[in-house]
Amino acid sequence: MWIGWIEFDLLLGDVHSRKAKRSVVRPLVAELRRRFPVSVAEVGHLDLHRRALVGAGVVTGDSAHLVDVLDQLERFVAARPETELLSAHRGLHTTEDE
Fold this sequence. Notes:
Blueprint: E1 2-12, H1 18-35, E2 39-44, E3 51-60, H2 63-78, E4 83-94
Antiparallel strand pairs: 1-3, 1-4, 2-3
């Protein structure tokens, strides 16, 4: 079994309140859940208005499929016009890792 995660550090557009931040982050999280077989949540920068940290996790039986899903997620997030992708960090583990 392969377990992978990816974390996106995002700079949000013209956002000056938590309400405005939610109006950008919630649709992004919902669209990632709808389009991809992943678990996803806002995981950091909760106290900053113009930054968001969004994480996604995937479990699969094949490492190639895992890398493909993580690549698709990164391309999708990078293409969003309302956010700027500052960085993406990922990790891959197998149940045989000890």
